[in-house]
Design goal:
- There is one protein chain.
- The protein is an alpha+beta fold.
- The protein folds into 2 domains: 7-73, no CATH class; 76-210, TerB-like.
- It has 7 helices and 4 strands; from the N terminus they run E-E-E-E-H-H-H-H-H-H-H.
- It has helices spanning 76-99, 107-121, 127-136, 141-152, 157-172, 179-191, 196-210, and strands spanning 7-23, 28-43, 46-60, 66-67.
- It has a 4-stranded antiparallel sheet with strand order 1-2-3-4, with no helix packed on it.
- A hairpin with a 4-residue loop joins strand 1 and strand 2.
- Helix 2 (107-121) runs antiparallel to helix 5.
- The longest helix is centred in the middle third of the chain and has 24 residues, at 76-99.
- The chain is elongated, with a radius of gyration of 27 Å.
- The N and C termini lie far apart (101 Å).
Length: 212
Amino acid sequence: MIAFILFGTRGVTTTKASGDFFCPACESRQPYKHQIVRRYFTLYFIPLLPLETLGEYIECQTCKGTYKLNVLNYDPDQAAKRFWQKFQQVTRDVLFLMARTNDRIYLEQIRTICAFSEHALGLSSTPQETQREILAMETSPRAVVDALTEIATDLNDKGKELILRGAFLVALADGDLSEEEMKFITAIGLALQMSQYHVRAVLDEVIEKLNE
């Protein structure tokens, strides 16, 4: 009679640690397990000798979603704060570039930027400070459009409309809407993934309010 010795390898999942974390899928704090998958040498299907680690992940115990380990570092409050700061900066860059679209920067454009920044973004600066920032700006139009594209997926319609509205107000502040300014407005709308109808509706709303 011949005896067969059955041996091989297989992955075995074990729990390294557990705790609470902010689950992106549940959008709230939930219990998690830090899981490790290792390859084991098996004899008669029994895992005996641990070999290499195949992977690690965080598993939500509520929705069973799995994530990379850095999800444990995610703080929704800090993430929201960072996004708001980025939104403020990108919007200011848009306003500055709009003011620089033509050969001359008009005082009324600077005042419009100051007023819009204070009321819509919570940022205060004098016309003199704003003018210095505009003249010192080194960010290219391409970089600003790329930044708009990056944040577009995380913005709701109100956020997108706010940026477009601010840019249009600056464009109109000098009393004329040039072809270059209109091209930039179109580029802003495209970067923010807004339809032509949506862009037109925002512009019409701005003009209507200015004429009241």
